[in-house]
Amino acid sequence: MFDLKSLKPKPKKKRKRVGRGTSSGHGKTSCRGHKGQKSRSGGTKGARFEGGQTPFYRRLPKKRGFKNYPFRVVYIPINVEKLNKFDGEAGLSQFEASGFSGHGDRVKILGNGKLEKSLIVTAHAFSKKAKEIIEKAGGKIVKC
Predict the structure, then answer these.
(1) How far is CA 58 from CA 46, 49, 53, 54, 127, in A?
(2) pTM of the complete model
């Protein structure tokens, strides 16, 4: 019958003690075999070892361009032709409301297309051509 009185803790297995003489059964080579890389201390291959072929991290070119990730400034590009849908003012809040959002913190106006209205455009940056087009149309540029 199986009841609480018959329960006993699992017997503990003794730790294998290697290198304690030949009569222990785990002496001399301490279960490591004879010679070879694995028999020696520190004899393991590194995590990046690829069997002797040139490792992946060494096959890549050294200079791939400097990427200043934590500090770089990413702009959302908006072309001048897309400003035609705004009336009077085109600013950051209007850009967000009309779906001009992307992977970036700031907005840059680029000079592709034609502007048919005079607008007050507010953005973080403008290209030279965009400035010319906005001012030709009678508009004004405001930098944030």
Answers:
(1) 14, 11, 10, 7, 40
(2) 0.54
